[in-house]
Amino acid sequence: MNQSHHREVVIVGGGLAGGAAAALLAQAGKRALLFEREAGPSHKICGEFVSEEAQQYLARVGLDLAPLGGHAISRLRLVRGGQMAETPLPFRGLGLSRCVLDHALLEHAARCGADIRRGCEARILKSESGARVHVDGEEWGPEALLLATGKHDVRDLRRHLVKPPEDLIGFKTYFKLNQAQTKALRGSVEVIVFSHGYAGLQLVEEERANLCLLTDRAQFQQSGSTWEGLLHDLAHTSEHLRQRLYGATPLLDRPLAIYRVPYGFVHAPLPGDAQNMYRLGDQVAVIPSFSGDGMAIALHSAALAAQSYLCGSGSREYHRRIRTDVAAQVARASALYRFGRSAPGQRMLIPIARAWPKGLRLAAAFTRVPPAAVMRVMG
Ligand SMILES: Cc1cc2nc3c(=O)[nH]c(=O)nc-3n(C[C@H](O)[C@H](O)[C@H](O)COP(=O)(O)OP(=O)(O)OC[C@H]3O[C@@H](n4cnc5c(N)ncnc54)[C@H](O)[C@@H]3O)c2cc1C
User: Fold this and answer.
1) Contact criterion met (CB below 8 Å) for 340 and 290
2) What is the pLDDT of residues 108-162, one digit of tens each?
3) How far is the CA of 15 from the centre of ligand 1 (A)?
4) Fold entry, domain 3-163+262-378
5) Which of 295, 301, 367 to mutate to test the pocket of ligand 1 (most atoms within 8 A of CB)?
6) Whether this model's pTM surpasses 0.90
7) Going by CA atoms, what residue is nearest to atom 26 of ligand 1?
8) Which of 10, 11, 16 to mutate to test the pocket of ligand 1 (most atoms within 8 A of CB)?
9) Contact (Cβ atoms closer than 8 angstroms) between residue 36 and residue 120
């Protein structure tokens, strides 16, 4: 039989959303308990572009990014076939691996006083008295349960998607590029557009190159349903990617993969939702990845949830506010994403970006968490 415990706050998931919420609540004197499935630092599917707002949130949480050795990024390059457009970013981004960043944040939360338990997969059950957490035969009935488990649905707590996710597959791996290509990539994030998707390429700490790409299942199958086949075909389509990867050494045995990410999802509160449950990060909103702002949304939701819990306004008000803060941003990013995937959009992308470089900067600004919302939770 399960042993039952009480805790004011239990957080499930120790990514950026869960880690930041644990640190903020611990700083406010709450002994938050966090369960993370992975036993130690681990790789995640992510382009690892840390936007300026994400950096600001991490600073607000008290995490010093300087010793983590990220790579400063100030330019955006858009590449399609033999065409390229380049523009300075309206802010300074950072290339930093999630393996390093998420681990550093959990360690920081523990130093702040949060109880971090790694290697613990939690199950969530709804009951009359609200959502409860089960881990290894023990049960927790918290005042507030912060659900920060990332992109995929949790058993018994399916999200209500307006439409099914597209048949997209995401991959992420690292390469050590040759010296000339490392130099050429320094300071830039590159988005290489293909007919079936796109790849993001940038340096992270120790000048490793993060290659993160999205393609549809049909393209993957055409390439023989293997990573090697896909990479070969994409490098054949893009001379730019072929050059970048010439003489490069893969740093992972095989890439990480993810399937059917529900891009465009924003949680709409429902009458049956458990009143003690707060959805954070990708559990509350999933912005198309090209925007490089998923981490900022995750951190924003953590700060807002902590604030709502601490001031007693509750989960219903939290879900209303987070939706107000990010729904327009996610909708704009989704519209740009659809345009970029359409045949006319693909043809017009580079000519528009070349003729109107400010447009790229505007697109980057439009797909960020609105400054007023950031100010409200940063205080
Ligand atoms: C292809 C791709 C590229 C992206 N590139 C970028 C980018 O460059 N910049 C950017 O800002 N955003 C990017 N994103 C988005 C970003 O990765 C996410 O928005 C962000 O990771 C969300 O953080 P999170 O804390 O909600 O979830 P996650 O980071 O996914 O963390 C969830 C955690 O919960 C744990 N967990 C899951 N289930 C359980 C359980 N039952 N019990 C205990 N623990 C559990 C997992 O192990 C994990 O550590 C990208 C996304 C994709 C798919």
Assistant:
1) yes
2) 999 999 999 999 999 998 877 789 999 999 999 899 999 999 987 777 677 777 7
3) 6
4) FAD/NAD(P)-binding domain (3.50.50)
5) 295
6) yes
7) 281
8) 16
9) yes
User: Could you report the per-residue pLDDT of 15-45, keeping only the tens digit for each?
Assistant: 999 999 999 999 999 989 999 999 999 999 9
List ligand 1's pocket residues with C-beta within 6 A: 12-18, 35-38, 44-49, 51, 54, 121-122, 148-151, 170, 212, 214, 258, 261, 281-282, 289, 292-296, 298
Please report, as a single letter, which amino acid is at residue 342: S
Residue ranges with strand state E in the chain? 3-5, 9-12, 33-36, 49-50, 71-80, 83-95, 115-118, 123-127, 130-135, 138-140, 144-147, 168-176, 188-194, 197-203, 209-216, 249-250, 256-259, 277-279
Q: For 241-275, b where at least 16 C-beta lie within 10 A, e where not — what string?
A: beebbeebebeeeebeebeebbbbbbbeeeeebbe
